[in-house]
Structures are given as structure tokens and as C-alpha cells.
Amino acid sequence: MVYYSAGDMNDTHSIKYIFLLVLSTVLFGSCQKEEGRLKWDTSINGDQRSLVMPDDVVVKYTAYEKVHYVSRVVDSAYQYLNIYVPHNLREENPPILFKTYTAGYMASKAKAPSATDATGYALAEGYVVCVAGCRGWNSTVDDFYNGRAPEAILDLKAAVRYLHANDSIMPGDANRIIASGTSAGGAMVALLGSSANHSDYALPLSLMGAADAKDDVWAVVSYCPITNLENSDMAYEWLFSITNDVRGLTDRQSYLSGQLASMFPLYLESQGVSEENMEKWMRNSILNAAFKATREGQVIPPEIGVVVADSTVNLHKFIHYIAGAQPLKTPPAFDAQNVVSKRGTFENKLFGTSDGKDANFTEFSMLNQLDGSKTLSEEVRWRVRLMNPMNYIGKNQSLCRHWYIRYGTLDRDTSFPTVLLLKHKLNVLGVDVNFAFQWGEAHNGDYKLNELFDWLSKISNK
Ligand code: DHB
Question: For residue 329, which atom of ligand 1 is closest to its CA?
Fold first, then answer.
């Protein structure tokens, strides 16, 4: 798909859509023929391999690799999945751990299982593992950036569709797909869990030759999701601007920080949340993490603002403690200034153009841009919408029912309110959310895997 620079799409937007609709009708017949190519090949034996786990247990498994999940492959370096089947299955047709390694919203290959992350642990526990590659903002073929948003989520949805389409002839139970990722990957799996089968994605998926199947996942495992991108600049400054005295900002950055922070309460209100409640949730989540760490033998020095004995959190002190542990992002944290000179963030690249330019994607940063267009195009708005799980939770019947969300108390890649709002939106709908802050953890994933797999085994046995 071709993406235009922000601002030049207003007139061409509807023409593009009419064109895509006609194209999809023409292609429909050929799509049906191409479905045959998306069939799991039952005649392939796979490779016999083994993995030595940290406790020296050897896990034997069969590997099936490089299975293309769309019939029109644009980038063969990424658009395929790998399947790994342990010899010791936990049940005849076990759940499938579906792992994405995407990070920084970059392209990611479908790697082999690792003994030190959830893929190795899942094999050892007898789950089938699927690792899906996907394009990202940096994937190119002939200088064409083919993975700008929303292509990565389309790839992952196409991979999930492949599993559903072939469920009766493939190892593993596609009705129990556990989508797992960290950071940008954590955001992607949250999007898989919230926007499954939604009509917004139907046309692009059919154009790329994805299987004509559902794309639901049964569980989401999301570590430190960099999500809700169009609202996270405000959340970030609302939380971290109290440290501006030691943040070393320029006058302009301080101004932007203040503006963003002051806009966040309105957004919170739109989500049915007061500032007081958000502060209470932050204190409770930090305290729960501290209690658990204390039970596990850690000593928490009271001067960082958390006094376990009194069950108190001084947010001002604790946020200063986080900011002191590593430099914060400068405002706006996600939709940066100066994107014209390609010095944008991962997110500016994600929403950038297929000729490699970065782009703004929020109203605020667009308006505050010192040069270039001040208008956010309909096309960029549409792409931003497709990348945010918050737009689908509560508006989509296929919402995933089981969520496991973790965020480190030392993480500053996004902010506490962003993940707490995701949790809140899910809680309101009554789905199963296993949520916790992890004491002392920064921007990481796949820790405390025993806790994850205890939970997975509970929900699998229900
Ligand atoms: C990731 C980290 C970031 O700080 C960010 O803005 C986007 C993605 C990551 O680690 O995936």
C-alpha cells in the first residue's frame, strides 16, 4: 500500500478508497484461487531439534519453518511464521503460544525458540509455539518502506488467520491462541486481542492475500505495551512533568510539557476516570509490587517514597526516583518535534511514509510543529486508529477474554497511566485481567515466567 505524506491526502482519500474497493472486487476471484497456497502442508516432516533449558532439561521438538501466511508476499524476509511442536505435548491438541518479537515497531523475523524466554518455557510445558515475523517501519524492498503502520498488525492478523484456516490439519488448537509480546510487541498483541475480526482491517487483509478466516486470539500476554500512542504524550507529561526541575529541558520543551500535562485530565475524563482515581490506582499498583518484592526478600529503602510498613506511596518522591534512575524521554515523548529532519521517534517512523519520511500523528504535535503542514491528514488519522487497542475495546464483539499485563515500576518508556487505562477499559467489560506492576523492573518482558505459565495452566484447564 502506498502512503502519502501527511497533509496531501484530503482530496485523494476517498478516490483511493473507491479504487481499493474496485480492486478488491476484481481480486476477489483470484483470492479464492490463492487460498490453496495458504494450506498447511501435511506432507512435510519438519526438523528434529532440541533445546537445553536453564535447568538443563532437554526439550525435544519438531520445527516447521518459513511458512508464508499471505498469498501475496511483499517482503519474504518477514512475512512468514514458524511452528514448533514439542514431543511431550501437554494434551492432545494444546494451546498455541503465538509470539511476536517486534520491538521499536521495527520489522521482526520469526526466530527459533529461546531457552530464556516464553517460547522455550512454552515448549518445555508442552505448548505448541508459533513465532510470527512481521514487517515494521524499517523493512524495505528496493527502497520502498513496506511496513509503515498498519502493516505490522495486518501481518500478525494474517498469521493468526493462517492458524485458524488450517486448524483441523495443524498441530495445536487455534481456538486457544496465546498472543505474547513485549513493548511494541506488547502493544501489537493487545491490538490482536481487542480488534479481532473487526471490519476496519478486512479490506487490507483481503488485498494482501490473508486467509479468509477469523483472527481471534484466546489470551493476550502483554509486557510493557507502548500503546495508545495518540494519547501517551499527555499521559507521559502528566506523570513526569513534576520532575521538570531536574529534567534539563529547554524552554520550549518545558512549554510543551506543561501544555500536554494540562490536557491529560480531559482525556482521563473521556475514559470515565478522575485524576484522583488514577493517582490511587498508581499508588495501589506500586504498593502491591512492593509488598510482593518484600515477601520475596527484597528490602525497599523508604527514601524512594514507598514505605511498605505503613502501606504508603509518596508519588512525588517515587516519580523523582524513576526519573533519577534513567533519563526520561523529552516532550513530546512519542510524537516528536523536528520530524521533517528525520529525527523522529520510533512512532514518527511507524506513521511515516513509504518513501522513508517520518510523520507526526497527533493533533497537538502537528499544530505545534515549527514548519511543514499543520493539518493531520485523514489517512494518518485512519492509520493511527488502526494501531490503537483502546479504539476497539468495548466496540468489538470479538474481545479476547483473558489478559495478562505486566509493567515494571522502573519503566519510563511509556507511563503508568497508559497501562492502567488499558487495564481499566478491560476491567469495565468484565474480562479476566491478570495485571501487575513488577517491582524494580525497567522496560523488559518475559520475566517471572513461572507466574505466567501458572496462570496459563489455570485458564487452559477451565
Ligand atoms: C519500544 C520502546 C519505546 O521506547 C518506544 O517508544 C517504542 C517501542 C520497544 O522497545 O519496542
Answer: 4
pLDDT tens across 396-437, in order? 999 999 999 999 999 999 999 999 999 999 999 999 999 999
Q: Residue by residue, what is the 3-state secondary structure of 288-320?
A: HHHHHHHHCCCCCCHHHCEEHHHCEECHHHHHH
pLDDT at residue number 342: 67
CA 29 to chain centre: 33
102, 105, 236, 358, best to mutate for ligand 1 pocket (most atoms within 8 Å of CB): 105
Q: Report d(CA 121, CA 116) in Å as an integer.
A: 7
Please identify which residue in the block is written with the cell numbers 513526569: 240
Residue bearing the CA closest to ligand 1, atom 5 = 104
Output the ligand 1 site: residues, CB below 6 A. Answer: 103-105, 183-184, 226, 345-347, 413
Residue 150 pLDDT: 98
Residue with CA closest to ligand 1 atom 7: 104
Cα gap 195→343, rounded to integer Å: 31
> What whole-number distance in Å separates Cα of residue 435 and Cα of residue 431?
12
Nearest ligand 1 atom to the CA of 333 is 6
Residue stretches of the chain with pLDDT short of 50:
1-15, 17-29, 31
Beta bridge partners of 67: 81
